[in-house]
Amino acid sequence: MRNSPITLKVLYYTVSAFIFSCFLSCKGDHAQSQGNRTAYPEVKEIKSSRAQIFLAYLDALVKLPDAKFSEAELRSINKKYASQLPLVMYDSTQEQSRQDIVIHYYKNNQFGPVMESGIRFLVPETLTDSLVVSDFTRYFGNVEDEKPLIGITEQPLPVHIQVSSDREMKITFKNNVNKEQAGVTMVDIFNYR
Q1: Are 121 and 102 in contact (CB under 8 A)?
Q2: How far apart are CA 20 and CA 9, in angstroms?
Q3: Half-sphere exposure of 46 (CA within 13 A, CB side)
Q4: Which of 117, 126, 138, 169 is most buried, with most CB under 10 Å away?
Q5: Is residue 129 within 8 Å of 106, Cβ to Cβ?
Q6: Could you report the per-residue pLDDT of 149-158, keeping only the tens digit for each?
Q7: Contact 86/99 with Cβ under 8 angstroms?
Q8: What is the pLDDT of residues 45-89, one digit of tens each?
């Protein structure tokens, strides 16, 4: 009776469950894994994630249908991302913080096959340091260089990404030797008719 099959099975499952629970409760916080940690990598991770959130926010705006590409829908999307990004609509009567992403929606009232409306984003310095042109190319696709209308300019010309047949992004960035690693200072989304 002592070594019956039922008793051995119960003992087997009990020991297995105990060992399994020990493995699940292990967090891996060993002294060797903590090592020499500084505050810098954590700050870099926060900036990196904020840049990814900003790209996802822009993607949500780019994918809006034509009928919903409006200031009201922009404000609605801003509310969804307000806890993750410092978004502020442009107001000429108020001074914006240097930490805020300033947003300006505008409409073009001209008739014909031109830009119908656009949204401009002024990227703060804190986000510019971690948001580079290559982030946009990985997320949205290849960039097209703007052709200079005059000779050589000191400030680099913006690049364009054709997101769809009626949407385009214009990215303005800091002067840098390597364009792909240049920090983004301003983003425009254009909605064409």
Answers
A1: yes
A2: 16
A3: 8
A4: 169
A5: no
A6: 666 666 777 8
A7: yes
A8: 444 478 899 999 999 999 988 888 888 999 999 999 888 888 888
